[in-house]
Amino acid sequence: MGEWIQRQIEPRLRRLAATRPVVVLTGARQTGKTALCRHLFPDHHYVSLDLPSEAATAEQDPALFLARHPLPLLIDEVQYAPGLFRHLKVVVDQERQRNGAIVLTGSQPFALMQNVSESLAGRAAVVNLHGLSLAEILGTAPQSTLPQILLRGSFPELWSRPAIEAGDFHRSYVSTYLERDLRSLQQVGNLQQFERFLRASALRSGQLLNRAELARDVGIAASTAGLWLSVLERSGLVFLLEPWFGNAGKRLSRSPKLYWRDTGLLCWLIGIGTEANLHRSPLVGAVWETFVVGEVRRQLENAASAGTLHFWRDRSKEVDVVLERGGRFWLGDAKWGELPSARDGLRLRQVASELPPGTVASTVLICRAPHRFPLGEGLDALPLSELTSHWGIG
Hints:
Helix 3 (52-60) packs across helix 4 (62-68) and helix 12 (211-218) crosses helix 13. Helices cover 44% and strands 18% of the residues. It is built from 18 helices and 14 strands. It starts with 9 loop residues before the first helix and ends with a helix. It folds into three domains: 10-128, Rossmann fold (3-Layer(aba) Sandwich), CATH 3.40.50.300; 134-239 and 264-282, no CATH class; 293-390, Trna Endonuclease, Chain: A, domain 1, CATH 3.40.1350.
């Protein structure tokens, strides 16, 4: 076992367990769901449906399964027994005043959520667990540099057990994902072709999604590309960020942007394995943008903060982060450099001028500067470590 890493989401999970009958924790494999739940709920009886015998009993004889595993109960990888959910509903209704008695985890969020919405609607609090945030990483490895963090990624095991070689971990992760999770999803026939699709998708992190172009590069049908993208989303490996288009008269993009959730896995897929390679790569800006957007999204979800996250793109300009809360806007652009200039914020100021007067709360260049400093005309440069507190979402 490695060193325990305190997770920012812990207080939220404790609050939910104190007020709701069921807590459901979803997220990609290896984000720390099992370890976190066992840490927070040590008195719960634990059972994993990763074990085929337990999954078979839970699916084929749920009454026997629940008799063998009394409350309070933590069920890991519960998506492997969809037939269990109807019986969980009965147990919950019998114990309706007993909050936090059932905790569920699952690594295929879409499939899990379908079962939760059908059987446990109104009874379950659902939380998505991301990989480690920047603050969580620096809390356990305070001397880490941003290039090191980008290359190693956000999977907790890589930081709790620093002796693990990141490339070996990511290679094993992809192999396990291809051989196990995709087989259970049963929507991918050619695994070699799908691995090429993974790498082609990684090369497009931070770009507008063009399914036809992606399909053409991999040599598959556009419909197949769409299906495989949904598989990546369901597995928690990528997410799509929707554009902001509050004014139908503006010629703004309607296509989403594709982002990988973990920059370590992203760098491994696109062949960036060292800090020197990262600094030289023409993709370093896209990797940094992926990390910045993912961090803002992670903090919004961890804190259950109000607000919606978008990007802005029209024919002449683009802004990476548009956070809208209560009719106000926080605008940010990711810049890999350490000392951006006021000229680098031209697009931010232009977009700010197109939003309603008085609604823009902040315009920032999110960079590798050691400290926040002003660039004039209401524009600041600041390190990513200060962004969420500056915007009030951490």
